[in-house]
Amino acid sequence: MDPRPPRLIMWDIDRTLLHAGRIAVQAYATAFTAVTGLAWREATVFAGRTDRAVTAELLAGYGMPDSDELRATFFQRYVEEFAARRHLIAASGRVLPGVREVLAALADRAHVTQTLVTGNIPAVALAKVATFGLDGPFDVTVGGYGMDDPVRAELVVRSRRLAEAKYGPFDPTDILVVGDTVHDIEAALTGGVTAIGVATGDTGADELAAAGAHTVFTDLRDVDAVVARLAGESPVPPPGQRAPLGDPEPAGSA
């Protein structure tokens, strides 16, 4: 039996693990108009938010209620529209640097459980990671997904509850949320667990640190350093300390 305390790592997907292009947004927009008959608003912000929260906001903007029936119909159409475009993801998206290596190294540690806590609804979340062959390391049965609750912090709470029911208790310091937005950091802190920022999205390292992240990585290229921190094998730095990893990604890379 591994003597180390069990560790639960909750990964965000978009711009933390991968870029999926705009395929999901296109599918979402098509489904929204098809189900509601309403025009899509291009200014809609998805980053760090749950699909359920985005849907409620869009409907409210048109004075429509966010009913369980309408939401179920919309999400089903969204899944269909996304599935029809899934073959385009590999061409328009990419896995971010260091991700494959970090996930594989953590999967080799018996005391670590990895799952997904994401604003995506389950079918879309699993399709994104599976398209790039990243699905193997995750126990998706204990994750938190964008149709579970509009509040992202509740996804953290849900994932922890499911994981502890399956694996036993985790110390809050051994539960880590890894994400690229302030929403991820705030969800971790509200849930009383460790917040790890990764500045691979639109939010800079300084902003993630200011939001309260316990550690901020520029990216995941320094696999040994990232794995050591996430697996609990290195000293814990002061809250908000930025880990100087790798060189900036070349502009225009895809």
From TrEMBL:
Residues 231-254 are annotated as: Disordered. One of its GO terms (biological process) is DNA repair. It comes from the Bacteria. GO terms for cellular component: cytosol. It comes from Polymorphospora rubra. GO terms for molecular function: phosphoglycolate phosphatase activity. This is Haloacid dehalogenase. InterPro entries: HAD-like_hydrolase_sf (IPR050155), HAD-like_sf (IPR036412), HAD_sf (IPR023214), PGP-like_dom2 (IPR023198). It holds the Pfam family HAD.
